[in-house]
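Hello again,

I reread your note about wanting to compare the complex against the isolated chains. To keep things tidy I'm splitting this into two emails, and this first one only covers the full assembly. Below are the input lines as submitted, including protein chains and any nucleic acid or small-molecule components. They are followed by the predicted structure of everything together. The single-chain runs will come separately.
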Amino acid sequence: MTTETEITLTPVSLDEIKHLISERAIQGETVLLNMGPQHPSTHGVLRLLLELDGEEVVNCIPDVGFLHTGIEKNMEAKTYEKAAVMTDRLDYLNNLGNNLAYCMAIEKLADLDVPPRAQAIRVILTELQRISSHLVWLGTHALDMAAMSVFLYCFREREIILDIFEMCSGQRMMTTFFRPGGLWRDVPADFEAAVRKFIKLFPERVNEYERLLTKNPLFLRRTKGIGVLKPETALQYGVTGPMLRASGIAHDLRKAQPYSGYDQYDFDIPTFTDGDTYARYLVRVEEMRQSLRIVEQALNKLPLGPVRSNNRKYVPPPRSEIGVSMEALIHHFKLWTEGFTPPKGSVYVGVESPRGELGVYLESDGGPKPYRVHWRTPSFTNMQILPIIAKGHLVADLVVLIGTVDIVLGDVDR
Amino acid sequence: MNEHLQSIVQAFQERFGASTYEFRGEISLILRPEHIVAACQSLRDEHHFELLVEETAVDYWPEQTPRFHLVYRLRSLKHNLILGLRVPLDGNSPTAPSITSVYANANWFERELWDLFGIHFDGHPDLRRILMPYDWVGHPLRKDYPLGYEEVQFSFNFDEINVRKPYAQE
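Full-complex prediction:
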Protein backbone atom coordinates (compact mmCIF):
# COMPACT_ATOMS: atom_id res chain seq x y z
CA MET A 1 0.00 0.00 0.00
CA THR A 2 1.37 3.38 -0.96
CA THR A 3 0.17 6.77 0.14
CA GLU A 4 1.03 10.14 -1.32
CA THR A 5 2.23 11.77 1.87
CA GLU A 6 5.55 10.61 3.14
CA ILE A 7 5.90 10.38 6.88
CA THR A 8 9.27 11.45 8.19
CA LEU A 9 10.36 11.09 11.78
CA THR A 10 12.91 13.51 13.14
CA PRO A 11 15.09 11.72 15.67
CA VAL A 12 15.40 13.25 19.14
CA SER A 13 18.86 14.60 19.58
CA LEU A 14 20.72 14.64 22.86
CA ASP A 15 20.74 18.44 22.67
CA GLU A 16 17.07 18.56 23.60
CA ILE A 17 17.62 16.95 26.96
CA LYS A 18 21.16 18.16 27.55
CA HIS A 19 20.09 20.57 30.28
CA LEU A 20 18.42 17.79 32.24
CA ILE A 21 21.38 15.43 32.56
CA SER A 22 24.73 15.97 34.21
CA GLU A 23 28.02 16.72 32.49
CA ARG A 24 29.23 13.23 33.36
CA ALA A 25 26.65 11.65 31.06
CA ILE A 26 28.05 13.59 28.11
CA GLN A 27 31.57 12.51 29.05
CA GLY A 28 30.34 8.92 29.13
CA GLU A 29 30.97 8.35 32.81
CA THR A 30 27.33 7.66 33.59
CA VAL A 31 24.85 5.58 31.62
CA LEU A 32 21.57 6.76 30.10
CA LEU A 33 18.93 4.05 30.31
CA ASN A 34 15.32 3.88 29.19
CA MET A 35 12.83 2.41 31.64
CA GLY A 36 9.50 1.83 29.97
CA PRO A 37 7.18 2.64 28.30
CA GLN A 38 6.56 -1.09 28.41
CA HIS A 39 7.75 -2.00 31.86
CA PRO A 40 5.57 -3.89 34.35
CA SER A 41 6.46 -1.70 37.32
CA THR A 42 5.64 1.63 35.70
CA HIS A 43 1.91 0.94 36.29
CA GLY A 44 0.88 1.83 32.77
CA VAL A 45 2.79 3.42 29.95
CA LEU A 46 5.33 5.69 31.54
CA ARG A 47 8.81 6.16 30.16
CA LEU A 48 11.61 7.20 32.48
CA LEU A 49 14.95 8.24 31.12
CA LEU A 50 17.45 7.38 33.80
CA GLU A 51 20.98 8.58 34.23
CA LEU A 52 22.75 5.93 36.24
CA ASP A 53 26.02 5.85 38.06
CA GLY A 54 26.35 2.12 38.59
CA GLU A 55 23.01 1.28 40.15
CA GLU A 56 22.48 4.73 41.62
CA VAL A 57 20.00 7.10 40.01
CA VAL A 58 21.69 10.42 39.25
CA ASN A 59 18.83 11.91 37.22
CA CYS A 60 15.39 10.70 36.38
CA ILE A 61 13.47 12.34 33.52
CA PRO A 62 9.84 11.25 33.22
CA ASP A 63 8.37 11.20 29.73
CA VAL A 64 4.57 11.14 29.83
CA GLY A 65 1.86 11.41 27.21
CA PHE A 66 1.70 7.87 25.86
CA LEU A 67 -1.90 7.60 27.01
CA HIS A 68 -2.97 11.07 25.88
CA THR A 69 -6.45 10.77 24.42
CA GLY A 70 -7.39 14.46 24.14
CA ILE A 71 -10.29 14.18 26.55
CA GLU A 72 -10.35 17.95 27.18
CA LYS A 73 -10.63 18.68 23.45
CA ASN A 74 -13.24 15.99 22.93
CA MET A 75 -15.36 17.25 25.79
CA GLU A 76 -15.56 20.67 24.11
CA ALA A 77 -17.25 19.02 21.14
CA LYS A 78 -19.97 17.22 23.11
CA THR A 79 -22.92 18.36 25.18
CA TYR A 80 -22.49 18.41 28.96
CA GLU A 81 -24.36 15.12 29.44
CA LYS A 82 -22.51 13.27 26.69
CA ALA A 83 -19.13 14.52 27.90
CA ALA A 84 -19.79 12.98 31.32
CA VAL A 85 -19.07 9.54 29.86
CA MET A 86 -15.48 10.55 29.18
CA THR A 87 -14.77 11.52 32.77
CA ASP A 88 -14.68 7.84 33.75
CA ARG A 89 -11.80 7.25 31.38
CA LEU A 90 -9.45 9.75 33.03
CA ASP A 91 -8.49 8.08 36.26
CA TYR A 92 -9.69 4.56 35.69
CA LEU A 93 -9.33 3.61 39.35
CA ASN A 94 -11.45 6.51 40.56
CA ASN A 95 -14.28 6.63 38.03
CA LEU A 96 -16.98 7.74 40.44
CA GLY A 97 -14.73 10.41 41.91
CA ASN A 98 -14.23 11.87 38.44
CA ASN A 99 -17.98 11.79 37.84
CA LEU A 100 -18.47 13.57 41.14
CA ALA A 101 -16.03 16.38 40.34
CA TYR A 102 -17.56 16.93 36.91
CA CYS A 103 -21.15 16.86 38.15
CA MET A 104 -20.32 19.20 41.02
CA ALA A 105 -18.77 21.65 38.56
CA ILE A 106 -21.93 21.65 36.44
CA GLU A 107 -24.08 21.98 39.55
CA LYS A 108 -22.05 24.97 40.67
CA LEU A 109 -22.16 26.52 37.21
CA ALA A 110 -25.91 26.07 36.86
CA ASP A 111 -26.72 26.56 40.57
CA LEU A 112 -28.43 23.16 40.56
CA ASP A 113 -29.61 21.47 43.75
CA VAL A 114 -28.85 17.85 44.66
CA PRO A 115 -31.30 15.94 46.92
CA PRO A 116 -29.89 14.68 50.26
CA ARG A 117 -30.35 11.02 49.36
CA ALA A 118 -28.26 11.49 46.21
CA GLN A 119 -25.58 13.28 48.27
CA ALA A 120 -25.39 10.41 50.75
CA ILE A 121 -25.22 7.73 48.04
CA ARG A 122 -22.51 9.74 46.29
CA VAL A 123 -20.49 9.74 49.52
CA ILE A 124 -20.96 5.99 50.05
CA LEU A 125 -19.93 5.13 46.51
CA THR A 126 -16.94 7.49 46.30
CA GLU A 127 -15.63 6.21 49.62
CA LEU A 128 -15.98 2.63 48.40
CA GLN A 129 -14.15 3.75 45.28
CA ARG A 130 -11.39 5.20 47.45
CA ILE A 131 -11.03 1.85 49.21
CA SER A 132 -10.92 -0.01 45.90
CA SER A 133 -8.34 2.41 44.50
CA HIS A 134 -6.16 2.03 47.58
CA LEU A 135 -6.52 -1.74 47.28
CA VAL A 136 -5.16 -1.67 43.74
CA TRP A 137 -2.37 0.59 44.94
CA LEU A 138 -1.53 -1.67 47.90
CA GLY A 139 -1.62 -4.81 45.78
CA THR A 140 0.60 -3.49 43.02
CA HIS A 141 2.92 -1.70 45.45
CA ALA A 142 3.51 -4.93 47.35
CA LEU A 143 3.86 -6.79 44.06
CA ASP A 144 6.66 -4.40 43.07
CA MET A 145 8.45 -5.67 46.16
CA ALA A 146 7.71 -9.28 45.14
CA ALA A 147 4.95 -9.85 47.72
CA MET A 148 2.61 -11.72 45.40
CA SER A 149 -0.02 -12.86 47.91
CA VAL A 150 -1.02 -9.32 49.01
CA PHE A 151 -1.92 -8.56 45.41
CA LEU A 152 -4.27 -11.53 45.25
CA TYR A 153 -5.95 -10.67 48.55
CA CYS A 154 -6.42 -7.03 47.58
CA PHE A 155 -8.01 -7.86 44.26
CA ARG A 156 -10.33 -10.32 45.99
CA GLU A 157 -11.76 -7.50 48.12
CA ARG A 158 -11.77 -5.03 45.26
CA GLU A 159 -13.97 -7.41 43.32
CA ILE A 160 -16.64 -7.17 46.06
CA ILE A 161 -16.67 -3.38 45.67
CA LEU A 162 -16.86 -3.61 41.90
CA ASP A 163 -19.81 -5.99 42.29
CA ILE A 164 -21.59 -3.27 44.29
CA PHE A 165 -20.91 -0.78 41.48
CA GLU A 166 -22.20 -3.26 38.93
CA MET A 167 -25.33 -3.75 41.00
CA CYS A 168 -26.00 0.02 40.98
CA SER A 169 -24.99 1.04 37.50
CA GLY A 170 -24.61 -2.11 35.43
CA GLN A 171 -20.89 -1.47 34.99
CA ARG A 172 -17.92 -2.53 37.07
CA MET A 173 -15.66 0.39 36.18
CA MET A 174 -16.99 2.90 33.64
CA THR A 175 -20.13 3.64 35.60
CA THR A 176 -21.14 7.27 34.79
CA PHE A 177 -23.53 6.77 37.70
CA PHE A 178 -23.49 10.36 38.95
CA ARG A 179 -25.31 12.83 36.73
CA PRO A 180 -25.73 16.59 37.02
CA GLY A 181 -28.39 17.12 39.66
CA GLY A 182 -28.13 13.71 41.32
CA LEU A 183 -27.76 10.11 40.24
CA TRP A 184 -28.66 8.17 37.14
CA ARG A 185 -31.23 6.23 39.19
CA ASP A 186 -31.79 5.06 42.73
CA VAL A 187 -29.74 2.18 44.10
CA PRO A 188 -31.38 -1.28 44.00
CA ALA A 189 -33.11 -2.79 47.04
CA ASP A 190 -30.26 -5.14 47.91
CA PHE A 191 -27.65 -2.38 47.83
CA GLU A 192 -27.75 -1.78 51.59
CA ALA A 193 -27.34 -5.46 52.43
CA ALA A 194 -24.37 -5.75 50.06
CA VAL A 195 -22.62 -2.73 51.55
CA ARG A 196 -23.32 -3.91 55.12
CA LYS A 197 -21.81 -7.28 54.27
CA PHE A 198 -18.68 -5.50 53.03
CA ILE A 199 -18.50 -3.27 56.15
CA LYS A 200 -18.65 -6.38 58.32
CA LEU A 201 -16.01 -8.27 56.40
CA PHE A 202 -13.48 -5.58 55.51
CA PRO A 203 -11.90 -4.46 58.87
CA GLU A 204 -10.54 -7.95 59.47
CA ARG A 205 -9.17 -8.00 55.90
CA VAL A 206 -7.27 -4.74 56.45
CA ASN A 207 -5.74 -6.27 59.59
CA GLU A 208 -4.77 -9.22 57.43
CA TYR A 209 -2.85 -6.99 54.98
CA GLU A 210 -1.20 -5.24 57.89
CA ARG A 211 -0.15 -8.58 59.39
CA LEU A 212 1.51 -9.40 56.09
CA LEU A 213 3.34 -6.10 55.61
CA THR A 214 3.46 -3.60 58.50
CA LYS A 215 6.07 -5.44 60.57
CA ASN A 216 7.54 -7.53 57.77
CA PRO A 217 11.32 -6.93 57.95
CA LEU A 218 11.74 -7.20 54.17
CA PHE A 219 8.98 -4.66 53.60
CA LEU A 220 10.44 -2.32 56.23
CA ARG A 221 13.88 -2.41 54.65
CA ARG A 222 12.44 -1.61 51.24
CA THR A 223 10.29 1.30 52.45
CA LYS A 224 11.72 2.94 55.59
CA GLY A 225 13.75 6.04 54.76
CA ILE A 226 13.21 5.56 51.02
CA GLY A 227 12.07 8.62 49.06
CA VAL A 228 11.82 11.06 51.95
CA LEU A 229 9.68 14.05 51.01
CA LYS A 230 10.00 17.12 53.20
CA PRO A 231 6.79 19.13 53.80
CA GLU A 232 8.19 22.33 52.30
CA THR A 233 9.28 20.50 49.13
CA ALA A 234 5.86 18.89 48.92
CA LEU A 235 4.13 22.28 49.09
CA GLN A 236 6.52 23.83 46.61
CA TYR A 237 5.67 21.08 44.12
CA GLY A 238 1.95 21.28 44.80
CA VAL A 239 1.75 17.70 46.06
CA THR A 240 -1.65 16.81 47.54
CA GLY A 241 -3.40 13.80 48.96
CA PRO A 242 -1.84 10.94 50.95
CA MET A 243 1.66 12.04 49.89
CA LEU A 244 1.20 15.43 51.55
CA ARG A 245 -0.37 13.89 54.64
CA ALA A 246 2.51 11.44 55.00
CA SER A 247 4.83 14.48 55.10
CA GLY A 248 2.99 15.86 58.11
CA ILE A 249 0.51 18.33 56.60
CA ALA A 250 -3.06 17.41 57.50
CA HIS A 251 -4.76 18.81 54.43
CA ASP A 252 -7.85 17.04 53.18
CA LEU A 253 -10.50 18.78 51.10
CA ARG A 254 -13.20 16.64 52.69
CA LYS A 255 -12.42 18.40 55.99
CA ALA A 256 -11.12 21.75 54.72
CA GLN A 257 -13.95 22.54 52.32
CA PRO A 258 -16.60 19.88 52.87
CA TYR A 259 -18.74 19.00 49.86
CA SER A 260 -21.57 16.49 49.33
CA GLY A 261 -22.32 16.58 53.06
CA TYR A 262 -18.94 15.31 54.30
CA ASP A 263 -19.31 17.66 57.29
CA GLN A 264 -22.03 15.37 58.70
CA TYR A 265 -19.68 12.44 59.12
CA ASP A 266 -17.11 11.84 61.78
CA PHE A 267 -13.71 10.76 60.48
CA ASP A 268 -10.02 11.44 61.03
CA ILE A 269 -7.29 12.48 58.64
CA PRO A 270 -4.38 10.08 59.15
CA THR A 271 -1.15 12.06 59.19
CA PHE A 272 2.43 10.91 59.64
CA THR A 273 5.55 13.02 59.79
CA ASP A 274 8.30 10.79 58.36
CA GLY A 275 7.47 11.52 54.71
CA ASP A 276 9.01 8.26 53.51
CA THR A 277 7.50 5.38 51.58
CA TYR A 278 6.55 3.60 54.80
CA ALA A 279 4.64 6.63 56.12
CA ARG A 280 2.75 6.85 52.84
CA TYR A 281 1.84 3.17 53.19
CA LEU A 282 0.53 3.76 56.72
CA VAL A 283 -1.52 6.78 55.62
CA ARG A 284 -3.24 4.88 52.83
CA VAL A 285 -3.98 1.81 54.95
CA GLU A 286 -5.47 4.01 57.67
CA GLU A 287 -7.47 5.91 55.05
CA MET A 288 -9.18 2.68 54.06
CA ARG A 289 -10.39 2.27 57.65
CA GLN A 290 -11.57 5.89 57.80
CA SER A 291 -13.41 5.54 54.49
CA LEU A 292 -15.19 2.53 55.88
CA ARG A 293 -16.26 4.59 58.89
CA ILE A 294 -17.74 7.21 56.56
CA VAL A 295 -19.57 4.55 54.53
CA GLU A 296 -21.07 3.05 57.69
CA GLN A 297 -22.27 6.43 59.02
CA ALA A 298 -23.69 7.47 55.67
CA LEU A 299 -25.50 4.16 55.33
CA ASN A 300 -26.94 4.41 58.85
CA LYS A 301 -28.57 7.75 58.17
CA LEU A 302 -29.31 7.31 54.50
CA PRO A 303 -32.35 9.56 53.92
CA LEU A 304 -35.28 8.57 51.74
CA GLY A 305 -36.54 10.69 48.87
CA PRO A 306 -35.73 11.50 45.26
CA VAL A 307 -32.23 11.03 43.83
CA ARG A 308 -32.43 13.67 41.09
CA SER A 309 -33.14 17.35 41.17
CA ASN A 310 -36.58 18.57 40.14
CA ASN A 311 -35.13 21.34 37.97
CA ARG A 312 -36.53 20.33 34.60
CA LYS A 313 -34.28 22.74 32.70
CA TYR A 314 -31.33 20.48 33.57
CA VAL A 315 -32.69 17.10 34.60
CA PRO A 316 -34.85 15.03 32.22
CA PRO A 317 -38.30 14.13 33.53
CA PRO A 318 -39.08 10.53 34.56
CA ARG A 319 -40.76 8.27 32.01
CA SER A 320 -44.05 8.32 33.91
CA GLU A 321 -44.39 12.08 33.43
CA ILE A 322 -43.74 12.08 29.70
CA GLY A 323 -47.00 10.30 28.89
CA VAL A 324 -49.19 12.75 30.79
CA SER A 325 -47.48 16.14 30.60
CA MET A 326 -46.82 18.17 27.48
CA GLU A 327 -44.10 20.20 29.27
CA ALA A 328 -42.34 17.01 30.32
CA LEU A 329 -42.30 15.81 26.71
CA ILE A 330 -40.87 19.14 25.54
CA HIS A 331 -38.20 19.07 28.24
CA HIS A 332 -37.35 15.47 27.43
CA PHE A 333 -36.98 16.33 23.75
CA LYS A 334 -34.96 19.49 24.38
CA LEU A 335 -32.60 17.85 26.90
CA TRP A 336 -31.80 14.84 24.73
CA THR A 337 -31.33 16.77 21.51
CA GLU A 338 -29.92 20.21 22.29
CA GLY A 339 -28.90 19.58 25.89
CA PHE A 340 -29.03 22.09 28.72
CA THR A 341 -27.45 25.54 28.57
CA PRO A 342 -25.85 26.77 31.81
CA PRO A 343 -25.23 30.52 32.20
CA LYS A 344 -22.03 32.11 30.96
CA GLY A 345 -19.16 31.95 33.44
CA SER A 346 -16.38 29.81 34.82
CA VAL A 347 -16.11 27.72 37.97
CA TYR A 348 -13.52 25.54 39.66
CA VAL A 349 -14.42 22.57 41.84
CA GLY A 350 -11.90 20.49 43.73
CA VAL A 351 -12.61 17.14 45.36
CA GLU A 352 -10.37 14.80 47.32
CA SER A 353 -9.59 11.84 45.09
CA PRO A 354 -7.60 8.84 46.41
CA ARG A 355 -4.49 10.49 44.95
CA GLY A 356 -5.02 14.10 45.97
CA GLU A 357 -6.92 17.12 44.79
CA LEU A 358 -8.89 16.40 41.65
CA GLY A 359 -10.13 19.65 40.18
CA VAL A 360 -12.35 20.61 37.27
CA TYR A 361 -12.18 24.03 35.69
CA LEU A 362 -15.33 24.46 33.65
CA GLU A 363 -16.08 27.44 31.49
CA SER A 364 -19.39 27.98 29.75
CA ASP A 365 -20.18 30.44 26.98
CA GLY A 366 -23.91 30.00 27.52
CA GLY A 367 -24.22 27.25 24.92
CA PRO A 368 -25.04 23.54 25.28
CA LYS A 369 -21.39 22.45 25.10
CA PRO A 370 -18.64 23.24 27.59
CA TYR A 371 -16.40 25.99 26.23
CA ARG A 372 -13.38 24.77 28.12
CA VAL A 373 -12.84 21.90 30.54
CA HIS A 374 -9.55 21.55 32.34
CA TRP A 375 -8.80 18.61 34.56
CA ARG A 376 -6.42 19.37 37.36
CA THR A 377 -5.44 15.78 37.98
CA PRO A 378 -3.54 14.78 41.11
CA SER A 379 -1.28 12.25 39.37
CA PHE A 380 0.01 14.85 36.91
CA THR A 381 1.12 17.18 39.70
CA ASN A 382 2.37 14.48 42.07
CA MET A 383 4.37 12.87 39.28
CA GLN A 384 6.72 15.88 39.17
CA ILE A 385 8.03 14.93 42.59
CA LEU A 386 9.41 11.59 41.32
CA PRO A 387 12.74 12.98 40.00
CA ILE A 388 13.26 14.78 43.31
CA ILE A 389 12.65 11.83 45.61
CA ALA A 390 14.39 9.32 43.31
CA LYS A 391 17.71 11.12 43.30
CA GLY A 392 20.44 9.06 44.94
CA HIS A 393 18.40 5.89 45.31
CA LEU A 394 19.01 2.54 43.62
CA VAL A 395 17.14 1.42 40.50
CA ALA A 396 15.40 -1.25 42.56
CA ASP A 397 14.09 1.47 44.88
CA LEU A 398 12.88 3.53 41.94
CA VAL A 399 10.36 0.77 41.25
CA VAL A 400 9.07 1.20 44.80
CA LEU A 401 9.01 4.99 44.41
CA ILE A 402 6.87 4.87 41.27
CA GLY A 403 4.45 2.78 43.30
CA THR A 404 4.42 5.09 46.28
CA VAL A 405 3.52 8.18 44.21
CA ASP A 406 0.42 6.18 43.19
CA ILE A 407 0.15 7.42 39.63
CA VAL A 408 -2.54 6.39 37.22
CA LEU A 409 -1.36 7.11 33.72
CA GLY A 410 -4.85 7.78 32.43
CA ASP A 411 -4.94 10.56 35.00
CA VAL A 412 -1.51 11.93 34.07
CA ASP A 413 -2.01 11.98 30.30
CA ARG A 414 -5.74 12.69 30.06
CA MET B 1 -16.83 36.57 50.48
CA ASN B 2 -14.32 35.97 53.23
CA GLU B 3 -13.00 39.18 54.85
CA HIS B 4 -9.39 38.12 54.68
CA LEU B 5 -9.70 37.40 50.96
CA GLN B 6 -11.47 40.73 50.50
CA SER B 7 -8.52 42.59 52.04
CA ILE B 8 -6.04 40.71 49.80
CA VAL B 9 -8.10 41.51 46.72
CA GLN B 10 -8.26 45.17 47.65
CA ALA B 11 -4.52 45.34 48.26
CA PHE B 12 -3.89 43.83 44.83
CA GLN B 13 -6.31 46.16 43.12
CA GLU B 14 -4.33 49.09 44.47
CA ARG B 15 -0.87 47.64 43.95
CA PHE B 16 -1.22 46.18 40.44
CA GLY B 17 -4.31 47.95 39.16
CA ALA B 18 -6.02 44.56 38.91
CA SER B 19 -9.70 44.20 38.11
CA THR B 20 -11.79 41.36 39.49
CA TYR B 21 -14.12 38.72 38.14
CA GLU B 22 -16.63 37.10 40.48
CA PHE B 23 -18.96 34.23 39.70
CA ARG B 24 -20.72 31.79 42.07
CA GLY B 25 -18.69 32.98 45.04
CA GLU B 26 -15.33 32.45 43.36
CA ILE B 27 -13.13 35.48 42.88
CA SER B 28 -10.40 35.98 40.30
CA LEU B 29 -7.99 38.86 39.91
CA ILE B 30 -7.34 39.96 36.35
CA LEU B 31 -3.68 40.93 36.06
CA ARG B 32 -1.38 42.15 33.32
CA PRO B 33 1.29 39.62 32.19
CA GLU B 34 4.21 41.69 33.49
CA HIS B 35 2.77 41.58 37.03
CA ILE B 36 2.11 37.86 37.34
CA VAL B 37 5.46 36.82 38.83
CA ALA B 38 5.46 39.62 41.40
CA ALA B 39 1.84 38.88 42.26
CA CYS B 40 2.53 35.15 42.78
CA GLN B 41 5.62 35.93 44.83
CA SER B 42 3.64 38.27 47.06
CA LEU B 43 0.74 35.84 47.42
CA ARG B 44 3.06 32.98 48.39
CA ASP B 45 5.34 34.86 50.77
CA GLU B 46 3.04 37.46 52.32
CA HIS B 47 -0.39 35.87 52.15
CA HIS B 48 0.38 32.13 52.64
CA PHE B 49 -0.90 30.85 49.31
CA GLU B 50 1.39 27.82 49.44
CA LEU B 51 -0.11 25.66 46.71
CA LEU B 52 -0.41 26.30 43.01
CA VAL B 53 -3.49 24.21 42.32
CA GLU B 54 -3.68 24.62 38.57
CA GLU B 55 -2.48 26.69 35.70
CA THR B 56 -4.41 26.50 32.48
CA ALA B 57 -5.62 28.62 29.60
CA VAL B 58 -8.75 29.39 27.62
CA ASP B 59 -8.74 30.25 23.92
CA TYR B 60 -11.24 32.92 22.82
CA TRP B 61 -10.54 32.60 19.08
CA PRO B 62 -11.53 34.39 16.75
CA GLU B 63 -11.14 37.19 19.29
CA GLN B 64 -7.62 38.62 19.05
CA THR B 65 -7.36 41.09 21.94
CA PRO B 66 -7.18 39.16 24.13
CA ARG B 67 -7.09 35.81 22.39
CA PHE B 68 -6.02 33.76 25.42
CA HIS B 69 -6.63 33.93 29.12
CA LEU B 70 -4.14 32.24 31.42
CA VAL B 71 -5.92 30.92 34.49
CA TYR B 72 -4.07 30.32 37.75
CA ARG B 73 -5.55 28.99 40.95
CA LEU B 74 -3.79 29.28 44.29
CA ARG B 75 -4.75 27.68 47.57
CA SER B 76 -3.86 28.80 51.05
CA LEU B 77 -3.80 25.95 53.56
CA LYS B 78 -3.31 28.31 56.50
CA HIS B 79 -6.36 30.45 55.80
CA ASN B 80 -8.29 27.75 53.89
CA LEU B 81 -8.84 30.04 50.89
CA ILE B 82 -8.74 29.68 47.14
CA LEU B 83 -7.99 32.52 44.74
CA GLY B 84 -7.98 32.66 40.97
CA LEU B 85 -5.76 34.79 38.77
CA ARG B 86 -6.45 35.52 35.13
CA VAL B 87 -3.98 36.98 32.67
CA PRO B 88 -5.27 38.09 29.24
CA LEU B 89 -2.80 37.57 26.38
CA ASP B 90 -3.06 39.17 22.93
CA GLY B 91 -2.19 37.74 19.55
CA ASN B 92 -1.72 34.32 17.97
CA SER B 93 1.66 33.44 19.46
CA PRO B 94 1.69 35.06 22.88
CA THR B 95 4.44 35.06 25.45
CA ALA B 96 4.03 35.18 29.20
CA PRO B 97 6.57 35.17 32.02
CA SER B 98 7.08 31.79 33.67
CA ILE B 99 6.25 31.41 37.36
CA THR B 100 8.41 28.31 37.85
CA SER B 101 10.73 30.36 40.04
CA VAL B 102 7.86 30.84 42.51
CA TYR B 103 5.92 27.59 42.25
CA ALA B 104 8.01 24.64 41.10
CA ASN B 105 5.05 22.61 39.88
CA ALA B 106 4.23 25.27 37.30
CA ASN B 107 6.95 23.54 35.26
CA TRP B 108 4.72 20.82 33.80
CA PHE B 109 1.62 23.01 33.67
CA GLU B 110 3.51 25.50 31.48
CA ARG B 111 4.94 22.72 29.33
CA GLU B 112 1.38 21.52 28.83
CA LEU B 113 0.25 25.02 27.89
CA TRP B 114 3.08 25.34 25.38
CA ASP B 115 2.20 21.93 23.98
CA LEU B 116 -1.56 22.30 23.71
CA PHE B 117 -2.04 26.08 23.33
CA GLY B 118 1.26 27.33 21.93
CA ILE B 119 1.79 29.88 24.68
CA HIS B 120 5.47 30.58 25.14
CA PHE B 121 6.84 31.08 28.64
CA ASP B 122 9.88 33.27 29.18
CA GLY B 123 12.36 31.97 31.71
CA HIS B 124 11.02 28.41 31.72
CA PRO B 125 13.83 25.91 32.36
CA ASP B 126 12.57 23.09 30.15
CA LEU B 127 9.94 24.18 27.61
CA ARG B 128 9.32 21.02 25.57
CA ARG B 129 6.14 19.28 24.46
CA ILE B 130 4.80 17.04 27.20
CA LEU B 131 1.63 15.24 26.14
CA MET B 132 1.80 15.25 22.34
CA PRO B 133 4.62 13.49 20.45
CA TYR B 134 7.79 15.59 20.28
CA ASP B 135 7.51 16.09 16.48
CA TRP B 136 3.84 17.07 16.49
CA VAL B 137 2.82 20.10 14.43
CA GLY B 138 0.22 22.49 15.86
CA HIS B 139 -1.36 23.07 19.23
CA PRO B 140 -4.47 20.91 19.63
CA LEU B 141 -6.46 22.75 22.31
CA ARG B 142 -6.67 25.93 20.24
CA LYS B 143 -10.15 26.61 18.99
CA ASP B 144 -9.00 26.89 15.37
CA TYR B 145 -7.46 23.40 15.50
CA PRO B 146 -9.89 20.84 14.03
CA LEU B 147 -11.01 17.95 16.20
CA GLY B 148 -10.35 15.36 13.50
CA TYR B 149 -12.61 12.52 12.47
CA GLU B 150 -12.73 9.47 10.26
CA GLU B 151 -14.83 9.58 7.12
CA VAL B 152 -17.60 6.98 7.08
CA GLN B 153 -17.28 4.68 4.10
CA PHE B 154 -20.42 3.58 2.26
CA SER B 155 -20.51 1.18 -0.69
CA PHE B 156 -20.87 4.06 -3.19
CA ASN B 157 -17.77 5.95 -2.01
CA PHE B 158 -15.69 3.17 -0.43
CA ASP B 159 -12.89 3.20 -3.04
CA GLU B 160 -12.77 6.97 -3.22
CA ILE B 161 -12.17 7.32 0.54
CA ASN B 162 -9.96 4.23 0.68
CA VAL B 163 -7.39 5.87 -1.60
CA ARG B 164 -6.70 8.72 0.81
CA LYS B 165 -6.87 6.74 4.04
CA PRO B 166 -3.59 6.88 5.99
CA TYR B 167 -2.78 3.18 6.21
CA ALA B 168 0.46 2.07 7.83
CA GLN B 169 3.17 1.43 5.29
CA GLU B 170 4.78 -1.93 4.66
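For quick reference: The beta strands of chain A are 31-35, 47-53, 56-63, 178-179, 182-183, 345-353, 356-364, 372-376.

B.
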